[in-house]
Amino acid sequence: MEEIPVFKCPACGLCCTFSPVSILPHEDVVLEIIAGVLDLPYKSQPGYTVYDEISGLNIAFSYIMELNNGRCVFLSGVRCLIHDVYKPLICRSYPYVPRHVKYNIDERGRYILATADYGISLACPIVRKDRGVLEKYSENPGLVIRYMKREYEAAVEMENARNLLLGLLSKLWREGLVELSTGKRNAPVVNLYEFLRKYYPDLPNMLNIDKVVEKIKLLEEEK
Fold it and tell me: What InterPro entries does the record tag this protein with (predicted)?
């Protein structure tokens, strides 16, 4: 039996030129802070939103990080400038990435849950090299974990963080503190993470952002 290879990132920087890059709300906040420290032109746009009738705001569940001249703004040559500070979960999970994220909104139960359909991207040269073996074992439920354990774990962390944020918003909904509906055109947009921090002061700790803040402080000192 042919052995399943173990994926190893070639650090070629190719994936840092792909668009769009979908990141979580708290990651958008973190990346904007880091970009400010490094004097980099970071830009992003809100992704999926819902409208809160009480605050009159569209709440963004995700953000799209824009490329700068066809490259990630944090890419220098083929090196990621923020690898040791904070690398977005979608970058850490690549080439195991969500093809589609669906937000399931239960208006009766006042609950929101995200489900994501993941797949292994053939855009990665290492995956293309291993494609024959991967296709041979495609029906093996443990294939992804065996082939790319770290990337799989990053994907699990990403979905856990996504649903943590949605679960906290759902709690506010059930308590009558928000009244959610389909995103409203032209309404002001607020980041879900920043919106939730008013109600959950410990949220940075829940998402381990406090540890990232310490790394950002070191980055500022080194500059």
Answer: Puta_zinc/iron-chelating_dom
